[in-house]
């Protein structure tokens, strides 16, 4: 039986463990913290083939320049002289081109549809994670946003996805319980959503029952190899060897660039969320979605909860959280849902935050490297970790077993910035 060590215990690492142990591998997962509160827990839980537009776009750059020094804005970059941050910023600016949006639409669609298929047809047979496939809505207030959303819908339909533009009457039909101050929405009928806490808890239990060794509070200090073959990792609990290795360490993955001789721009984009009980009919929102001008997300979860989240804060993983950023989320929620008025002081103890691993173009890194024949990299998923988790795990298994991959991985090339 071949042995594999997976570095990172978030959804990408654990999904890889699932497919590999089912394929007969001896699997060990090494996690620097515990498995109970990483970036995979507090996100919006979208399963979204609709995210077919890469993160690095001219619009994001233009708006981001206005926002980047406002610590309450949806997109904030902590000013600091840092080589990795500068390298990432240059890669992001270079990638933010209209031709890249067109080029990457198909691979993002394909990996998104693969993930949705795996969650619906495979994972649901193994355990419950409160999956729902009623779609997602993207709500807008202004004529300018409506114009942009119409273009997004046209692009999605060109890709063959079930996407429609709804007017105010259509939006009200989708959300009959809640007053919405908006003029319309995109309805991504192709999407689903799940409850991340339930997914992660049941996945961990499933892996333990399958014999996967889950090591917590074990930090990887370095990787060692020779002649194109990684032989061992050095950890705070000693050295460990294996036949193959998977790098799925999220926002910490870039710390191994030097050991692996890789140029893989990656930063941690901190996001925040709060999860509340559905305490009145106005909070009984039926669909997950995005508030376009508010730049935040909302998700009904597990039948009796709702989560609001968002922001992208490019900062050091050692920087304390800025709770004032949650004010921006709560204000956007109130602007779109006037009957929902949540005060920051009332929910401070419910604020969650985590670091999304964000690549130089917002596209994941999935694949092998030219130098290391027994290493697979799977990181850089940004906001799409949960959404693409199942597909990425399957692809990692296919790569290690030298099988044909279920989707073309050229757009996710680990060394595309070399």
UniProtKB/TrEMBL annotation:
UniProt xrefs under SUPFAM superfamilies: FAD-linked reductases, C-terminal domain (SSF54373), FAD/NAD(P)-binding domain (SSF51905)
Signal peptide: none
PANTHER family: GLYCINE OXIDASE, SARCOSINE DEHYDROGENASE-RELATED
GO cellular component, one term: cytoplasm
Domain FAD dependent oxidoreductase: from-to ranges: 3-399
GO molecular function: oxidoreductase activity
UniProtKB keywords: Oxidoreductase
Full protein name: FAD-binding oxidoreductase
């Amino acid at each position: 039986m071949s042995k594999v060590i997976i570095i990172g215990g978030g959804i990408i690492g654990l999904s890889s463990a699932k497919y590999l142990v089912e394929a007969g591998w001896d699997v060990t997962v090494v996690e620097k913290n515990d498995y109970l509160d990483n970036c995979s827990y507090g996100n919006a839980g979208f399963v979204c083939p609709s995210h077919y537009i890469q993160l690095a776009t001219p619009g994001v750059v233009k708006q981001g320049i206005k926002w980047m020094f406002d610590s309450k804005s949806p997109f904030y970059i902590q000013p600091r002289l840092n080589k990795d941050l500068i390298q990432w910023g240059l890669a992001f600016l270079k990638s933010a081109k209209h031709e890249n949006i067109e080029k990457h639409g198909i691979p993002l669609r394909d990996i998104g549809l693969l993930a949705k298929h795996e969650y619906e047809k495979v994972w649901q047979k193994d355990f419950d994670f409160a999956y729902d496939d009623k779609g997602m809505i993207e709500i807008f207030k202004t004529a300018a946003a409506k114009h942009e959303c119409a273009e997004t819908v046209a692009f999605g339909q060109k890709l063959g996805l079930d996407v429609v533009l709804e007017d105010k009457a259509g939006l009200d039909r989708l959300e009959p319980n809640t007053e919405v101050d908006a003029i319309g929405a995109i309805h991504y009928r192709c999407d689903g959503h799940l409850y991340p806490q339930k997914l992660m808890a049941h996945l961990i239990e499933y892996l333990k029952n399958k014999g996967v060794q889950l090591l917590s509070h074990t930090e990887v200090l370095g990787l060692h190899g020779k002649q194109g073959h990684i032989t061992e990792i050095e950890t705070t609990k000693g050295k460990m060897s294996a036949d193959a290795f998977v790098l799925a360490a999220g926002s910490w993955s870039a710390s191994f660039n030097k050991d692996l001789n890789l140029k893989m721009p990656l930063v941690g984009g901190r996001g925040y969320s709060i999860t509340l009980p559905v305490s009145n009919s106005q909070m009984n929102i039926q669909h997950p979605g995005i508030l376009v001008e508010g730049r935040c997300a909302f998700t009904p979860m597990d039948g009796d909860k709702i989560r609001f989240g968002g922001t992208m804060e490019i900062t050091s993983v050692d920087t304390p959280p800025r709770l004032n950023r949650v004010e921006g989320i709560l204000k956007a929620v109130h602007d779109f849902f006037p009957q929902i008025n949540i005060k920051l002081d009332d929910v401070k103890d419910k604020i969650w935050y985590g670091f999304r691993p964000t690549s130089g173009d917002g596209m994941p890194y999935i694949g092998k490297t030219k130098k290391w024949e027994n290493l697979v990299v799977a990181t850089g998923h940004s906001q799409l970790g949960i959404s693409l988790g199942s597909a990425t795990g399957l692809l990692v298994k296919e790569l290690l077993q030298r099988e044909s991959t279920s989707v073309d991985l050229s757009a996710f090339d680990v060394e595309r910035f070399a």
